[in-house]
Design goal:
Layout: E1 3-6, H1 9-17, E2 25-28, H2 34-42, E3 51-54
Parallel strand pairs: 1-2, 2-3
Protein name: Exonuclease V subunit gamma
């Protein structure tokens, strides 16, 4: 299993738009709110991404 780590929203969109994420697992390590998270997840099928996960390091404890 190959996982691509995206450090920013911009890196996610750049790689997705250029089909670099097709068939791969993606882990986003930038802060997202629920709206942005849902927006990104809606594009999973369009960009043919196997799975998308998000870091929880920015969530309040």
């Amino acid at each position: 299993m190959r996982t691509i780590v995206c450090n920013s929203v911009q890196s996610f969109w750049d790689m997705a738009d250029n089909q670099f994420l097709e068939g791969l697992d993606v882990h986003c390590v930038f802060p997202v709110n629920e709206g942005l998270k849902a927006f990104i997840l809606n594009y999973q099928e369009r960009y043919k991404i196997r799975s998308i996960s998000f870091t929880n390091a920015f969530q309040p404890s």
